[in-house]
């Protein structure tokens, strides 16, 4: 037994539902990426500040090097340039930290934008798919191991709505107790349909004429 029902109608519904869930995941993945990149744009000014400061600091470093070559006055002449270069280094470090913080916030915001709506849908969709698979697999195991459909008929009597049972027999309980194979087969078939399975052709019993179906 796979993850989809053997009945075409039920299988089509499952495929449609799975497709919609997949589309939902892809949609919010795209939205998450867009949010990440949009928030990351806020780091642009800080990144540009760091680049500009690096260029100016490089210019001051070159100037300090040139001033340091003046005989006798080199050390005194280069001090202002070294001081300015050091101050710009602090500005560069601060700007780079700002860029890192903004990028982390952008990544976190993007992931939350993706995960929250996807988690909500998966919390509703995944348990149902898992329950169906377990129920269908268990039903298939019983169906493969025995041709006795009484168990499925009994489950139908316990779980199916009264109007469904009435369409099968005016008194399905009495028919089940009496071993009416036609009624038992119909009851089992209804229960198997709930698990997404078809009743094997070799287990079908023709419905007596005149019985509602």
UniProtKB/TrEMBL annotation:
Presence of keyword Transmembrane: yes
> What protein is this chain from?
Uncharacterized protein
Judging by the UniProt lineage, the source's domain of life is Bacteria
Question: What does the UniProt keyword field contain?
Answer: Membrane, Transmembrane, Transmembrane helix
Spans through the membrane? 12-35, 105-126
